[in-house]
Design goal:
Blueprint lengths: L1 H27 L3 E2 L12 E2 L2 H14 L6 H22 L4 H17 L11 H21 L6 H20 L2 H21 L8 H18 L12 H5 L1 H17 L11 H7 L4 H24 L3 H22 L6
Helix pairs in contact: 1-2, 1-7, 2-3, 2-7, 2-8, 3-4, 3-8, 4-5, 5-8, 5-10, 6-7, 6-8, 6-12
């Protein structure tokens, strides 16, 4: 337990130190997100490079923890690839197909490291494509919810804690250390990213988080007590999955390209109905804790029928929320 506390505290302290350093560097070199009066309505330019601070604090804390095995090395290499891809996009502009191609290269590294969806009832020719779909989807889902101060980082923090507990239950010490180290780096970053944000993580940070958390979700074992336990990670990550589906549905309904920026996110719609930025963030954090707890509950239930009933209930609730939120008019 002391090792978990040490790595969490170290990554947290490093993130507290490195985030303002990256902020100063971004301001010096003009790497900022300028308001445009449309989708970007902050009052003044906000520096990027927060994702670099998260990555460095995560990597440096792990370097002091233990010898890296093949899975951890695969995670770090894939994370580095997607971080650099996002950084290039932050500094300029990448076409959507280039970003997807780069994300698939990062996923390929994970697959070659032995990290892919492993379910006994799925043949390899199904599980590998499903792995690509899941990880590319997660990388973009955390990018999609990064539309409000502290939102993506906060949801990722609670998801990391949930997968830390999953790793503890499974007896996977190395994976538990990776998850708790990521949580520490996120908590330090949130000190500067919570509203009003002094720095953004950018595409580099959000895609890195999505890939890391998506991979941590796959490494865990969930079906020891019931065959439907594999649904636990989907429940734990309900918030980014829901927002992605909401955005895709609304953009499809409006007949606009899926990769085109638009104010279709659940967070912006909640702002429209009267919640403050802090209110949306705290509501999302509370929901992330609840979904994390439900995911752990799904792992512990012995009856697949209980799991199926719970998942159906959550799906119905999600559809109801989608129906009401898509009716909210956002300028």
């Amino acid at each position: 337990m002391l090792l978990y506390v040490f790595t969490f505290a170290l990554s947290f302290i490093l993130s507290l130190y490195l985030t303002p350093v990256m902020r100063g560097a971004a301001l010096q070199f003009g790497i900022v997100d300028n308001p445009d009066g449309k989708l970007k309505r902050h009052k003044e330019p906000i520096p990027y490079l927060g994702g670099i601070a998260i990555y460095l604090s995560f990597l440096l804390a792990l370097a002091f923890s233990f010898k890296f095995d093949q899975e951890v090395l695969g995670l770090l290499l894939a994370g580095t690839i997607i971080l650099l891809l996002g950084l290039i996009d932050d500094l300029g502009f990448l076409k959507p197909w280039v970003k997807i191609a780069g994300q698939m290269v990062a996923v390929l590294v994970l697959v070659r490291s032995g990290i892919f969806i492993k379910l006994v009832f799925l043949p390899t020719y199904v599980s590998i494509p499903l792995t690509f779909l899941w990880l590319v989807g997660m990388a973009n889902a955390f990018n999609i919810i990064d539309v409000m101060d502290g939102l993506s980082a906060g949801v990722a923090f609670f998801a990391s804690l949930a997968f830390f507990l999953v790793a503890l239950i499974n007896g996977r010490i190395m994976i538990a250390i990776v998850a708790i180290t990521l949580a520490g780096s996120l908590l330090g970053f949130l000190r500067y990213n919570f509203t009003p944000a002094k720095i953004y993580m950018g595409d580099a940070g959000s895609m890195f988080l999505g890939l890391m958390i998506g991979a941590l979700a796959m490494i865990g074992s969930y079906t020891e007590k019931n065959v439907l336990g594999f649904l636990a990670p989907v429940v734990i990550l309900s918030i980014p999955i829901f927002d992605t589906l909401l955005v895709m549905f609304i953009r499809w309904r409006k007949k606009i390209p899926i990769f085109l920026g638009s104010p279709d996110h659940y967070a912006l719609r909640l702002r429209t109905v009267g919640l403050s930025a802090k209110g949306v963030a705290w509501l999302s954090y509370g929901a992330a804790v609840v979904f994390g707890g439900l995911g752990l509950l799904i792992m512990s239930l012995s009856s697949p029928y209980q799991v199926a009933s719970l998942v159906v209930l959550l799906a119905v609730a999600g559809l109801v929320a989608l129906f009401f939120l898509q009716r909210v008019e956002v300028t």
